[in-house]
Design brief:
7 strands, alpha/beta
Length: about 260
């Protein structure tokens, strides 16, 4: 299957590391002009340099800005006035006892994981509709469907993101623009390594800690291992392409079979 995104511009939020970085790399390898986003200019520049070296792409754009604020979003839009592909990857997560989650934390998770994505969709969807082509991907989580007891606030925000995706897909109906969610399962990133060690013995070597985490905290996984970021990126690159023209309004799982369902 040949995926060619030449001539397309993609913006990936929160793409200086982890899943977002892998997505940016995958889109660049498929020929897209990719805008890398993060809060700090230094981290964005470093990611662009690494991506240029790893992918050989000369079509990489630095788009720093904190999109959880209107000012930061305007800064990103100034760097990338038009985008054919928008990947809303930015997100925060972390464990907390249910009754100890403060109102400020409830608000922060909703603002970062949901409202920031809405802000970027509102910035780029009108142009996509005018050009009769576009792809919007919102990176959700298995926690949207299987709410984890140790981070209800995170699960809530990702459930809301599924609703946002379906709603904007309806708004874009018949325009040539597709809007989908990608439900990522437990994925191996630096942040997740920290999360794993909050739940299992920090003295364990990483391979043993990962196995213990999956057995004790994610036993539903059919893979029985953490997913690699590149595996999430592969789905995003496909959904960003013309080959996925009939897929919209969906929540597609790359979760290693974690969600116990025969539906996508």
């Amino acid at each position: 299957m040949l995926i060619d995104l030449s001539g397309r511009t993609a913006l990936v939020t929160g793409s200086t590391q982890g899943i977002g970085y892998a997505i940016a790399a995958g889109l660049a390898r498929a020929g897209a002009r990719v805008a890398v986003n993060g809060r700090r200019q230094e981290s964005v520049d470093a990611a662009v340099s690494r991506l240029r070296e790893e992918t050989g792409s000369g079509s990489l754009v630095a788009a720093p800005g904190d999109i959880t604020t209107e000012e930061g979003a305007r800064r990103v839009a100034a760097a990338v006035p038009e985008a054919d592909i928008l990947v809303n990857n930015l997100g925060v997560f972390g464990p907390a006892p249910a009754l100890e989650i403060t109102e400020d934390e409830w608000r922060r998770y909703f603002e970062v994981n949901v409202l920031a994505a809405v802000r970027m969709i509102r910035a780029y969807l009108p142009g996509m509709k005018e050009r009769s082509w576009g792809r919007i991907l919102n990176i959700a989580s298995d926690s949207a469907v299987v709410i984890p007891a140790e981070m209800i606030h995170y699960g809530m925000s990702k459930t809301a993101l599924l609703g946002v995706s379906r709603g904007f897909a309806k708004d874009a109906a018949g325009t040539g623009v597709t809007v989908n969610s990608v439900i990522a399962g437990p994925t191996h990133t630096g942040g997740v390594e920290d999360f794993v060690y909050e739940l299992v013995d920090r003295d364990l070597p990483w391979d043993e800690a990962q196995r213990r985490f999956m057995i004790e905290h994610r036993p539903q996984s059919l893979l029985q291992r953490l997913i690699e970021p590149e595996e999430i990126a592969n789905m995003v690159v496909y959904l960003s392409s013309p080959l996925a023209s009939a897929t919209t309004g969906g929540a597609l799982r790359v979760d290693g079979g974690y969600v116990d369902s025969i539906l996508p």
